[in-house]
Amino acid sequence: VAAIALSGVTKVYADGTVAVDGVDLEVAEGEFVTLLGPTGCGKSTILRIVAGLETATSGEVWLGGRPVDEAGARDRRVSMVFQDFALYPHLTAGQNIAFPLHTEHVDDATIATQVAEVARLVGVEELLHRKPIQLSGGQRQRVAMARAIVRKPGALLLDEPLSNVDAAVRADLRAEISSITRTLHVGTLYVTHDQTEAMTMADRIAVMRRGRIEQIGSPSQVYSDP
Ligand code: ADP
Ligand code: ADP
């Protein structure tokens, strides 16, 4: 069963903009797929539809073999990391990471264990008592990643997570994000307009233009085709 599957997905916004135009896409369990394309080609709209934050005008979306509309945005099968990290500013890093577990009424001992586990995995175990404002962009990104994976989702959605991170740490984070998603064996859909990110991180790259996937394949396939 695919972690994420889209069939004939189209999104027409109220003003008539066709943001996504008949997209078919499957992300296997443990697979890392990037959506690569210029601003405005429909990448974020696809992520928001998969996350249940937006509904498709037509077409179907499945998470782990079940239609996404049965699930909604809070479904534990999917987590999303946003470009601006969207951390709660008044909570510590530890509280941010623990938040999705608190909303599910997980007991405190389990929360402490799971927070410690993912904090170690993303390398923020020394930063758990800091507020977001006391963290660098790269550290915020790690905390956002930890919060996204703490419920062990089947699908992970990353919307340009490195665009607000210093260039100096971007390469390290690229390597770490792909290593973490592989360790967790989570199906990942990663949005970027950066060819280097797509090339170095992805199992497959879906090249988008004007709401459509124009080409899809491994990095070497995509970059050897004229
Ligand atoms: P990308 O993530 O590739 O930059 P988006 O998915 O954000 O692209 O946007 C795709 C298209 O849909 C763009 O033309 C954008 O202006 C338009 N769009 C996005 N959100 C809305 C909205 N809420 N209402 C109308 N048009 C929108
Ligand atoms: P609080 O004052 O609510 O305990 P903290 O920032 O200390 O705020 O912790 C928030 C959450 O993160 C808690 O639920 C705790 O279980 C977890 N947490 C914080 N620090 C650690 C840590 N060093 N190891 C494991 N879990 C931690």
TrEMBL record:
<keyword id="KW-0813">Transport</keyword>
<dbReference type="GO" id="GO:0005524">
    <property type="term" value="F:ATP binding"/>
</dbReference>
<dbReference type="GO" id="GO:0016887">
    <property type="term" value="F:ATP hydrolysis activity"/>
</dbReference>
<dbReference type="GO" id="GO:0055052">
    <property type="term" value="C:ATP-binding cassette (ABC) transporter complex, substrate-binding subunit-containing"/>
</dbReference>
<keyword id="KW-0067">ATP-binding</keyword>
<keyword id="KW-0547">Nucleotide-binding</keyword>
<feature type="domain" description="ABC transporter">
    <location>
        <begin position="4"/>
        <end position="226"/>
    </location>
</feature>
<dbReference type="GO" id="GO:0140359">
    <property type="term" value="F:ABC-type transporter activity"/>
</dbReference>
<protein>
    <submittedName>
        <fullName>Sugar ABC transporter ATP-binding protein</fullName>
    </submittedName>
</protein>
